[in-house]
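To whoever is covering the structure queue this week,

Two jobs came back overnight. Logging them here so there's a record in the thread.

Job A:
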Amino acid sequence: METFLEEVNKKIDGVPIQRCYHCRKCTAGCPVASHMEYNPNKVVKMIQNGKREEVLKSSTIWLCLSCETCITRCPNQVDIARMMDVLRQMAIESGAGAREKNVLKFHKAFLAGIKRGGRINEPMMMAEYKLTSGDLFSDVLMAPGMFLKGKLSLLSPRTKDMKSLKSIFEKTKSI
């Protein structure tokens, strides 16, 4: 039977996470590490120690911004952001979901937006999220200012190669 470490490595399909020697540069550069239940280095250690349930049920995997600061700092190019993506998908598949209210709904709205056009259209994504979460008006007053400052656009460009995008979603079985 496959260990948790082997399963994660296979799904990452890149640099094996056992190349991590726990220098903590990923954690030092992570903009949200102080808000995480376990820092990125600790998640790697937990995977190496087979702590599947703790990792998949942790809030940490849902807080990762996928900014890739961790991989740019890692001397061994361990792709923590990709690892967190894999762990989120594994959590969904296992039924663990997310502890934080509505974070899974936001995740699904984000992926649905990418699937639709290959890029995020923030107003469409937020509309989908707001409708599914029921949190309709908590931040509605921010929208006009964001539109006026050019931070939100009603139209966003679509990816030219939608065929490849569709293939990615079919291969990963996401959404």
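Job B:
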Amino acid sequence: MKILSAFILTILLVFAGCTSVEYQAMQNERDRLRAAHEDALRKHDPRQLETALTDKLIGSWQFLDMEVAEGDVSEEIAALKAELHATVRQNLTLDFFMDRNVFRRYRGKNGDTEVTGSFKISSRRYGDESFPYLRIFRDTGLPLHEFLTNMSASRLKNQDTVSMKAAADNWLGVSVTDDTLSLTMYGTMELTPNGWARSSGIRCVFQRIE
């Protein structure tokens, strides 16, 4: 009887131990999934995205290069691309700054030409991803797209490979790292094998100088 009781007790202890291990594994998996879910929410939270990009955008930027969508282009597009690259922009700069720590302001200069206004980083959701845009509210000078390209929207929108669907004149696709700023005008959002991506349009690239 004592042997039987000891055997039963051993079985119960082993079972309790297995149950405890399985329960801990299930708890760990739930914690991992919860942490992954919260991390995904933080990454895709538009408010955090917009705040982080606004902080990175503050500073002075020097124009580096301009790109027109590649691919099968007409002679008109080829001429436009050559003209864009030929336009003198060595002295073109953009400054983004806070006015009295409240108002988000921008100033652009290229020789004697100057533009000013306010800005806001917003985002639009495509699938599971949020894509940021720079919204411009002009005060003085040319619209920003004309300041950057030296061309009017009426000319650009007549080109077959340049879409006006995704961005109005005061909406530009924006990408910012510590050292590089990219602004995309007239680009469209397209679903590719690798997910949503911005394509077409005209992209201006800047390097940080301050």
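Note for Job B: The beta strands are 59-68, 93-99, 103-110, 113-126, 129-140, 171-176, 180-185, 188-192, 195-199, 202-208.

Please reply-all if you pick these up so we don't duplicate work.
Q.
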